[in-house]
Design a protein that fits this description.
alpha/beta, 130 residues, single chain, four-stranded parallel beta sheet
């Protein structure tokens, strides 16, 4: 395995309220925590969803939280989610890999390893996890 770049996962969650989305999102967090490649961080944008900070703390997954401006939280902005991921990559400096993943995907334990080992340079790649 070659030296690792920091993987930044830019994303958002629905609320953690005990419903079906809650269970799926917790399984996603388990699949992230179970990665064999550990040089990663979630850059999470919160649009007013309930329980996100608490669920992330419980999961022990490295993360940073960004809160959308107060007001009409029903206005989800993919642009804002991606810009927060870009902000993290700039703040960390060095070479990073920026991913956008939905919280209803389950990742194989070596998913981040495979992303890190791609032999690409400064191009965009699309990958569809399970």
């Amino acid at each position: 395995m070659k030296a690792g770049k920091k993987i930044i996962i830019s994303m958002t969650f629905r609320g953690f309220d005990g419903g079906p989305n809650d269970k799926i999102q917790r399984r996603f967090l388990q699949s992230v925590r179970g990665q064999t490649y550990k040089n990663y961080i979630l850059a999470v944008t919160v649009f007013g969803e309930k329980g996100v900070p608490e669920a992330l703390e419980e999961s022990n997954v490295p993360h940073l939280l960004y809160y959308a401006p107060p007001g009409n939280y029903k206005k989800f902005s993919l642009t804002q989610v991606l810009l927060n991921g870009i902000r993290v990559s700039k703040e960390l400096g060095g070479e990073c890999i920026l991913l956008w993943i939905n919280a209803d995907n389950m990742l194989d334990p070596d998913y981040f390893d495979r992303i890190n080992n791609l032999h690409v340079e400064k191009i965009a790649v699309i990958s569809y996890p399970h």
